[in-house]
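Design a sequence for this backbone.
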């Protein structure tokens, strides 16, 4: 974790390779997860949505599906008209699921969830879910049974990947904390006048400690004594065993700052560039807009073997792994189109699709591999909730030449 001016930057390295990158500026924290008491300003039947004043500069967008019961089986068979369940002046408690981006206001929902260390608590979802990243069916079943035992009435619980192998006592304590937090939110809602903020989601430091500091992390380096103390306090409550892995980085004048010392700065500059080199001599061309990202794969200097199909396949396979990692590092959201090098054999195409699907399962953000289009392009979608790091950098990005 590196302090750069007014920004907290966090990088996760696996075998020395940049695997994830997060950035948050002071005063520019994400709103995702915040809970507000808002007032419906207007209803748009043609868009099946309502605009809600939650006290920000722009009204928030509330889609009709986010007003219905969070459990699909408990929703009405015939979807009601939005005007039948929302009207101007109505006061609603909502949670932000997507930050304001560009000229758009925040997107909000009434499907509430509060994230803990081991699980996600949903006050009225009425079901138990288990992370798909937990591969053992026996462990998944154990967690399902525990979830049913721990939840009350209409509560819902999603067991996170970190819950794998965790004792019932830890899971029970997590549920208890989140249940008490939700009761406090309800109490504030009862006494507050709209618009009002009822709950503020944790900042980047808290989220990183909660979501990223797993037992497979060997060391955690921080270059700020105050931030080190903050992380230590958080770990004392969430994962005491991880406290022993905290390290304070002090530059000695030769190695530079924390990110330079661990080779992170160079990897960030490369990862956020327009032309991104591959180990085998090939390269990617990366074009990113607010809603659509287009990636072109090129063989470059790689000549491979005497077999053209094998050369193309090996280049595409390396590109598939690299692109999957860079989607996490750049925190890309929306539609992604990948123009892999043309392959003639269906088996080669199937292997690339399988590799992309396999890599998507490692992504902590929902990533859906749609597959090959009729034009031979790979299509996927990745959930977008927060402004990605490259758009938070003030001025012009040195790598891509674009402003924020």
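Sequence:
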């Amino acid at each position: 974790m590196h302090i750069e001016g007014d920004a907290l930057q966090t990088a996760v390295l696996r075998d020395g390779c940049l695997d994830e990158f997060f950035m948050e500026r002071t005063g520019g924290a994400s709103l995702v997860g915040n809970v507000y008491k808002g007032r419906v300003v207007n209803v748009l039947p043609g868009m099946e949505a309502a605009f809600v004043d939650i006290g920000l500069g722009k009204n928030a967008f509330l889609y009709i599906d986010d007003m219905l019961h969070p459990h699909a089986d408990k929703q009405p068979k015939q979807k009601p008209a939005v005007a039948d369940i929302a009207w101007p002046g109505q006061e609603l408690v909502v949670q932000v699921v997507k930050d304001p981006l560009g000229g758009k206001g925040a997107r909000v929902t009434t499907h509430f969830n509060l994230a803990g260390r081991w699980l996600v608590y949903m006050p009225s979802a009425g079901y138990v879910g288990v992370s798909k990243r937990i591969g053992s069916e026996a462990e998944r079943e154990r967690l399902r049974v525990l979830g049913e035992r721990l939840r009350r009435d209409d509560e819902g619980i999603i067991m996170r990947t970190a819950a794998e192998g965790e004792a019932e006592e830890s899971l029970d304590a997590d549920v208890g904390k989140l249940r008490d937090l939700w009761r406090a939110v309800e109490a504030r809602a009862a006494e507050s006048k709209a618009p009002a903020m009822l709950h503020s989601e944790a900042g980047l430091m808290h989220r990183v400690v909660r979501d990223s500091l797993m037992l497979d992390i060997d060391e955690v380096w921080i270059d700020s004594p105050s931030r080190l103390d903050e992380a230590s306090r958080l770990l004392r409550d969430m994962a005491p065993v991880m406290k022993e892995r905290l390290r304070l980085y002090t530059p000695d004048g030769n190695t530079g700052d924390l990110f330079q010392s661990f080779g992170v700065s160079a990897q960030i500059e490369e990862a956020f560039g327009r032309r991104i080199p591959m180990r085998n001599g090939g390269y990617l061309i990366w074009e990113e807009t607010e809603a659509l990202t287009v990636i072109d794969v090129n063989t470059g200097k790689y000549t491979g073997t005497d077999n053209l199909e094998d050369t193309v396949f090996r280049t595409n396979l390396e590109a598939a792994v690299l692109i999957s990692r860079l989607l996490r590092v750049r925190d890309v959201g929306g539609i992604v189109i990948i123009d892999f090098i043309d392959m003639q054999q269906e088996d080669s195409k199937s292997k690339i699709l399988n590799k992309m699907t396999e890599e998507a399962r490692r992504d902590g953000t929902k990533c859906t591999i749609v597959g090959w289009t009729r034009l031979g392009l790979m299509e996927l979608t990745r959930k977008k909730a927060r402004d990605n790091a490259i758009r938070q950098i003030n001025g012009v990005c040195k790598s891509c030449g674009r402003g924020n």
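The chain has ten helices and 21 strands.
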